[in-house]
Design goal:
- This protein has 214 residues and is of the alpha/beta class.
- The chain has one domain: Spore Coat Polysaccharide Biosynthesis Protein SpsA, Chain A (Alpha-Beta Complex).
- The chain has a four-stranded mixed β-sheet.
- Strand 7 and strand 8 form a beta hairpin.
């Protein structure tokens, strides 16, 4: 991002990106019981200061992250203590525009099928690289995976008891050896803020949503 602070703390229409993300989950009709924010140890104080500046903030708990995404998700699971029943979502803190429809549909699919992820069909043509050059892939059979990724809690706990995978890319890749992954239709507005251009687009989308009351 090239910014002076972590991207989850960047101001989006005057409020931290991460706060917008929290509100998306708090505002659903799911009755989410616990929201856990996992951050590096050296960012916890900054986040608490931002919460004080931008109150009210949805009630949530804090957990200290690990050296990798895998370790951070495991720390978030540890924060749940002895709970073994229920559906849990893992979500990128820098996806502040996730529609309620996507959150609710992914939770429902995980409740019914055990494991579900939001994903969209690629808009562009996709090619696979090989030693001989490259070849086209059928994009109708491909999906770009988003978050939330939702799982029955006991299933995700089982997956994270295994050693960390070198091929780890997301939580579905941890779980898929234990259980099939159900695909839920995501949303192209559910962007993951990674570059300065993403911030500009997020501002436009968020402002448009506010004007439309959605």
């Amino acid at each position: 991002m090239g910014a002076d602070r972590p991207k989850q703390f960047l101001p989006l229409l005057g409020e931290p990106v991460l706060l917008h993300t929290l509100r998306r989950f708090a505002a659903t009709e799911l009755g989410v019981r616990r929201l856990i924010v996992v951050l590096p140890a050296d960012q916890l104080a900054t986040w608490q200061e931002l919460c004080a500046q931008h109150a009210p903030v949805p009630p949530h708990e804090l957990a200290t992250g690990g050296a990798t995404r895998w370790a951070s998700v495991r720390q978030g699971l540890a924060q749940l203590g002895q709970e073994t029943e229920g559906t849990v979502a893992v979500h990128d803190g820098v996806r502040p525009l996730t529609p309620a429809r996507v959150i609710e549909a992914t939770f429902a699919a995980a409740y019914n099928h055990g494991a579900a992820v939001a994903a969209v069909v690629p808009k562009d043509s996709v090619r696979n690289l090989s030693q001989q050059g490259s070849y086209a892939l059928n994009r109708s059979r491909l999906r770009l995976v988003q978050t939330p990724q939702c799982f029955e809690l006991h299933l995700l706990r089982r997956a994270y008891q295994l050693p960390e995978l070198n091929t780890f890319t997301d939580d579905a890749s941890v779980v898929e050896d234990l259980h099939p992954i159900y695909i839920v239709e995501g949303d192209y507005r559910n962007l993951k803020i990674t570059t300065p251009e993403d911030m500009l687009l997020a501002e436009v989308l968020l402002r448009t949503a506010e004007e439309n009351g959605s």
